[in-house]
Design goal:
Structural class: alpha/beta
Strand order of the largest sheet: 5-6-7-8-9-10-11-12
Strand content: 15-25%
Number of helices: 13
Largest sheet: 8 strands, parallel, barrel
Number of strands: 12
Helix content: 40-55%
Bound molecules: erythose-4-phosphate
């Protein structure tokens, strides 16, 4: 039964093209939907153009199905790969491969880069990578975390994401930072409930530590999977970063479970490229080519 008197807004956009795309998708799933143009304030079929906010509405009893479909749609973005390091040479090398979307650091990773200040390291990283760079606060109290976060954020406002550990003070800090438009990455997540609280507080990212959970005999990927489902069920915009990745299989599993990001050490990235059959395949191709070149008249490929 469709109740046309009770409509729920499920999406807002200023783009007519995007509104059309979403309408088409809802139509495909037989979900009744309507476009409301804020400036005009009337409900139309999708034939109106012009400026102003466009709201996509569905009948109240269709809202969950519609949100689910929208979530699937929004997930059409590619899984991102971040590099989990503060080492500038690794970041340069990995960036040259063309597959790195961002960087995550933590106090331990920064401490490995002896001889440089935090500011020097962060400034160099943001000069290499055009994407989010997570830098962690080391304060304990929410007020101090927020103050520290603002200083870190000011180094490169369009790149810096503030890593905040999950704890009561951390949640307060995340709430305040998100209200001020500063992106946060809630770190040291070991349970789904910790992730849920961070998402509710407004974290931009949550980082379940898969490897460290595996280390104590639990299944780290379960936390990734459940947080992805939680986000999809309720339409949150937080992204799950599969963290504490120890080997290539972790990356594959994270991708299959729908993690929005996997942050990986450089050594794991290098292992992901390798396959013994690729190595032996290249060797054989080169050997056969060499033999062919020696035996052929010209000895070159093109002539
Ligand atoms: C994530 O952001 C953390 O920096 C990192 O993944 C922790 O990994 P580890 O457990 O290998 O230290």
């Amino acid at each position: 039964m469709i109740n046309y008197n009770k409509l729920n807004t499920i999406y807002k956009t200023n783009s007519f093209i995007e509104a059309n795309l979403i309408k088409g998708m809802l139509d495909n799933f037989n979900i009744p939907n309507f476009i409301e143009k804020e400036a005009i304030g009337k409900i139309f079929g999708i034939t109106v153009d012009g400026l102003g906010e466009i709201k996509i509405k569905v009948p109240y009893n269709y809202r969950w199905r519609a949100l689910k479909i929208l979530n699937i749609f929004s997930r059409r973005q590619k899984m991102k790969i971040f590099l989990d390091t503060a080492n500038v040479s690794e970041i340069k090398e990995a960036t040259n491969l063309g597959v790195i979307d961002g960087v995550t650091t933590n106090p331990t990773l920064i401490a490995k880069e002896k001889g440089s200040t935090l500011t020097e390291i962060v400034k160099e990283i943001v000069s290499i990578i055009d994407g989010p760079v997570s830098v962690e606060v080391v304060s304990i109290k929410a007020d101090d975390m927020v103050e520290e976060a603002k200083k870190l954020h000011s180094m490169a406002p369009s790149n810096i994401v503030i890593k905040v550990p999950i704890c009561e003070e951390g949640l307060k800090a995340i709430k305040r930072l998100s209200k001020e438009g500063i992106k946060t990455n809630c770190t040291l997540i070991f349970s789904v409930n910790q992730g849920i609280l961070a998402i509710k507080a407004g974290a931009t990212y949550v980082s379940p530590f898969v490897g460290r959970i595996d280390d104590i005999g639990w299944e780290g990927m379960d936390v990734v999977r459940d947080l992805v489902i939680f986000i999809e069920n309720y339409g949150f915009s937080t992204q799950v970063i599969a963290s504490s990745i120890r080997h290539p299989l972790h990356v594959t599993q994270a991708a299959i479970l729908g993690a929005h990001v996997a942050t990986i050490p450089f050594s794991v990235l290098q292992k992901m490229v390798k396959h013994p059959l690729t190595d032996s395949g290249i060797e054989k191709f080169l050997k056969d080519w060499e033999e062919f070149s020696r035996s052929s008249k010209s000895g070159t490929l093109l002539s």
